[in-house]
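ENTRY TYPE: protein
WANTED: fold as tokens:
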Amino acid sequence: MKRLAPKASPPLTAALLAVVLLAGKGLAQQPEPAKETRKELPFLQVPVTVAKDVTMKVNALAWFRYTWNQSAQGATNGSAFSVRAARLKFSGDLPKKFKYSFMFAFERANGATASQNSALYDYMLIYAPTAYFNLTAGQFTVPVGAEVMTPTDQLDFASRYYAQDRILNPSFNHDVGVMASGKALDQRLQYWLGVFNGSGANLTANDNGDMLYASRLQWVPVKAKLLGLDSTLTLGGNAMWKRTMADPSSLKSTDLAAVSFQYPYHRIVYGGDLAWKLGPARLSGEFIGARLDGQVKDPDVRAYGWHVTAACRFLSEKLEALVRYQVYDPYTRVKARTDMDWTTLGLNWFINGQNLRLTVNHTIKNERIDRVRNDESVAQLQVGF
């Protein structure tokens, strides 16, 4: 079916115009550049001492979003307001070089996360004797991928990239387990090694006696001045594996719902990433691949996805323009509507750094076959401290 020419999104056009007009006024009043580091409210700049050798720090994050969608038939447009994120975090120090962190999520679960999200989003007890070695236990992100490990309030776009969301566990790849991590070579080399249940967040028990094993290595080979600008090159690689009895990923439960498998099978995920920063400009890319290796008569399923993203800040770093191209193929042997490539245009306005930020995205969606009109526009206000 021939793809119909997309119509301009009235909400997106109005939002972009409002951003540019308001930005000019705001920049005239506040010419100082925004810092990427989080600015705490005055009473939270220093963690509060609640007992001997015990401190507590409070952070919060909220996303208020407006989404405009084209319908599959193209006859009507769907739009909605939503509270996409509502998080509250308590963290601090404990005696004997221990640290703790609790994060609670109060937003409504949706889609693949419906059976995974709960009020307890993160719980971490961390033993940190040196920078070279930390040991973390609890519920937290499995270290597979650069973007999945990026803090929610630091994301470039309103949503994480699609292939990673489908191939990894729901709830942004959170799981229950133990992980060793550390930094070396003047913090230019980082590692993560973890063992997890592999079944998702704490609402779900381990599906068998086998564990999920995950690892990630990140290296900064270049950190210097180039053309008078700060330049940084970061490389990363990661992998995870489990002999599973209940794969919780959207890849298996939704995209491969019609494909027959016999449990158990080997779930293998791997990937790599690159990020180059030169002054106010950034170029990054990430690849993720998966293989579901089952019984002798089962199909050998291979899936993959990747993205390339370019961004640049301007007007004293108050505004940031972005573009992302991403691809996802959940079954390389079969052409289907789930095969997609998307192009996203984005604009971030850092009203007060990351504490108060407006994000506007427009995504042009293409499917490999049976194309439909389903482009999407998003305007999202981020508030945090």
